[in-house]
Write a structure and sequence with these properties.
Layout lengths: L1 E4 L8 E4 L9 E11 L1 H8 L16 E9 L11 E5 L13 E5 L3 E3 L6 H5 L2 H14 L7 E5 L4 H12 L3 E6 L4 H6 L3 E4 L5 H9 L6 E4 L4 H9 L6 E4 L9 H5 L3 E4 L4 H5 L3 H16 L12 E2 L3 H10 L6 E4 L3
Parallel strand pairs: 8-9, 8-11, 9-10, 11-12, 12-13, 14-15
Antiparallel strand pairs: 1-2, 3-4, 3-6, 3-15, 4-5, 5-7
Helix pairs in contact: 3-4, 3-10
Length: 328
């Protein structure tokens, strides 16, 4: 099989011919049709993601979609020829999806809904799982909540907006002026982060009380602003980019709480794989109900041009999720 291999950090990846791997107990061999591109992939390639515990040489690509080519002992939930998707490799020495075939733990995968192309399916796992863990498992979002999503047009952000809308929350989302149309199309009220200070939009949209849930998908100064936007007495801030040192004083002063989301943990620890497969089955229900869509960048990439997809992720030109296609 052909695979794109990272032999050194901050160096070009190279196409190599490798043996097709074979599944062990609890694993499936997937003929990979598409590999989703995430900021994490580019950070790993640059040597800037030690938290992902990369090991060289590496096959990157956290997200995948394809068809089952073989199953290992004990696998009963998938059959040969079935379409599957998941966030299942590309870190901690686990080969990822920038290859024609890959072996992955069956518990991490879910069937692809009939309404979803494999290209779109490959763009969904990491961002949806991250949104679900933050809103549902940490913040327990429910109907009637006021929810603020920072970066509402981004990968995790556009999933979080749709998830909050689907449960009946009143959703607001920050973004640039150029992202207004995309955010409003998802059902959220737009807040221009470049034109509004946190105190201003908290006053305008909540009467100064703050939002029940604030989901930060940006990090840095945006996370600090999130602490000031949480509802007084019981607000909850969630972040998937809580790396760094921050003062919790503004959060404490509002009697609010904070949760971090670390979506890679099941892959790194080897524990909790079934949770990720189960979360993707929740995504399937929303897709089938017409309540969840994934925004794709229109550009098309192959294994031979995957470096260009990484460059587009880095330079900020992506207008939706980027996907590398490897086959049918």
């Amino acid at each position: 099989m052909q695979a794109l291999v990272l032999n050194a950090f901050a160096a070009p990846m190279t196409i190599a011919s490798l043996p097709v791997p074979q599944p062990g107990p609890g694993q499936v061999l997937v003929r990979i049709a598409a590999s989703g591109v995430n900021p994490l992939d580019t950070k790993i390639a640059a040597g800037a993601a030690p938290h992902a515990q990369p090991r060289l040489p590496a096959i990157l690509g956290v997200d995948l979609a394809g068809t089952v080519a073989a199953v290992g002992d004990g696998v009963t939930q998938f059959a040969i020829g079935e379409r599957v998707y998941g966030m299942a490799g590309g870190i901690a020495g686990i080969p990822g999806s920038l290859a024609e075939y890959g072996v992955f733990e069956a518990a991490l995968l879910a069937p692809v809904p009939a309404a979803l192309s494999l290209r779109k399916a490959a763009a969904l796992p990491l961002v949806f799982i991250t949104a679900w863990e933050g809103l549902v498992e940490r913040a327990h979002v429910k109907a009637g909540d006021t929810v603020l999503v920072h970066g509402g047009a981004g990968g995790v952000g556009h999933m979080a907006v749709q998830l909050a809308v689907s449960v009946g929350a009143k959703v607001f989302a920050t973004g640039s002026a150029a992202s207004r149309g995309a955010i409003e199309a998802l059902g959220a009220r737009f807040i221009d982060y470049g034109a509004s200070e946190v105190d201003d939009y908290v006053a305008e949209h909540t009467g100064g009380a703050g939002f029940d849930i604030v989901y930060d998908t940006v990090g840095g100064a945006t996370l600090e602003a999130s602490f000031k936007a949480a509802r007084i007495h019981g607000g909850h801030v969630v972040s998937c980019l809580g790396w760094g040192t921050f003062s919790l004083s503004p959060l404490t002063a509002r009697a609010a709480s904070y949760s971090g989301v670390f979506t890679l943990l099941p892959l790194l620890s080897g524990k909790g794989h079934a949770r990720h497969g189960a979360i993707l089955r929740e995504a399937n229900l929303l897709i089938e109900a017409g309540q969840l869509q994934v925004r794709l960048d229109p550009r098309r990439y192959t294994l031979g041009t995957a470096e260009e997809a990484h460059a587009a992720q880095i330079d900020g030109s992506a207008r939706g999720k980027l996907v590398v296609e490897l086959g049918d």
